[in-house]
Design a protein that fits this description.
331 residues
């Protein structure tokens, strides 16, 4: 595949210099980088055809990395008609050139369950040079799960639960979660306890799980929904977390009345940290205000020290010596 260098230069401050280096220096590494950029949409619009073109040109100049990606693209039919035989040939060439990932890919194709799971993760999240592709991720996860891989069973269950690349099937998902939980998979046990038994503590943990971006995909609305359900069902930690959301205006509007309500609910269950918020917000306790400021010190939303400063300034107004000193040291 040939690209016209006179008309193909990307209009992007990062991609354009790499393009010029690829054209002027005939640099295979620059061509490879352009291929990855078009494959994943880094600084340019995603374009598998252009990605294929640059990778093909780089491979012709003995780029092992490009042979590897061409093998992946051909094997799965990304940007082209699927050609498994050609893909395996490219992967073998890359492996012979010392490209380690190609060897692992071939081992996964030969049935290595752990490597199949890892490839599922790479396509699931678009890790490294891999494009994000739910369908391919599901295929690798399913193949690994069929060989008994516990983590893969969880991920297949998750995709079935969410209907991601497959028809949603909650019963099948719960069955896989149960199997994984029996082997000690913590998140799978959380799914069972939350979705089947609706245990408040599990609903809260599931909410936190969706607030992260490692085992499951980050989903703020699901996080909020599960935490709200857990709070309404009486989980003290969820009640405090919901109170914090209302104070911070995170996913909900700022509402001190609602915040105090949920902090009170949690404090009635003897949650000391919730009592701290009640003392600060209702009773204007200077030391409680100061201690909450310290709690926010490493909070991800504490940009430019703003959250901590807000609490410490209120404590300082009430004459709290440590708050006054801490603020002075920050000025």
């Amino acid at each position: 595949m040939q690209l016209d260098p006179a008309t193909s230069e990307p209009n992007n401050v990062f991609a354009a210099p790499i393009f010029r280096r690829a054209i002027e220096k005939n640099d295979p590494q620059a061509m490879f980088y352009l291929g990855v950029m078009y494959l994943k949409g880094f600084g340019v619009e995603t374009d598998p055809v252009k990605a294929l073109g640059w990778l093909t040109r780089a491979a012709a100049l003995d780029s092992g990395n490009s042979y590897y990606l061409l093998g992946v693209l051909n094997t799965h039919g990304i940007g082209m008609r699927r050609d498994v035989g050609q893909g395996l040939e490219y992967l073998s060439t890359a492996q012979a050139m010392g490209q380690l990932d190609a060897g692992e890919y071939l081992a996964a194709c030969d049935g290595n369950a752990e490597l199949q799971y890892e490839l599922g993760q790479m396509f699931d999240r678009g890790i490294g040079t891999m494009p994000e592709n739910d369908q391919i991720a599901y295929e690798w996860y399913r193949s690994s799960a069929q060989k008994g891989h516990v983590g893969a069973k969880f991920q297949v269950g998750l995709m079935l639960l969410e209907g991601r690349s497959v028809h949603a099937h909650k019963d099948a998902a719960m069955s896989l979660f149960s199997e994984a939980a029996e082997f000690g998979h913590t998140e799978a046990l959380t799914m069972v306890n939350a979705l089947s038994l609706r245990l408040p503590s599990a609903l809260y943990q599931l909410g936190l799980l969706y607030g992260r971006d490692d085992v499951v995909r980050h989903d703020p609305q699901k996080m909020l929904g599960y935490i709200q359900e857990a709070a309404a069902s009486g989980d003290a930690n969820a009640q405090q977390k919901l109170g914090e959301f209302y104070i911070e205006g995170m996913l909900v509007g700022r509402d001190q009345v609602q915040a105090i309500y949920w902090f009170r609910q949690a404090a009635r269950q003897k949650l000391d940290s919730a009592e701290l918020f009640v003392n600060a917000l209702e009773r204007e306790c200077a030391d409680s205000l100061f201690q909450i400021g310290k709690r926010y010190f490493h909070h991800p939303q504490n940009l430019d020290f703003q959250l901590t400063r807000q609490w410490w300034e209120r404590a300082a107004e009430l004459g709290h010596a440590e708050a006054i000193s801490a603020l002075r040291s920050r000025n």
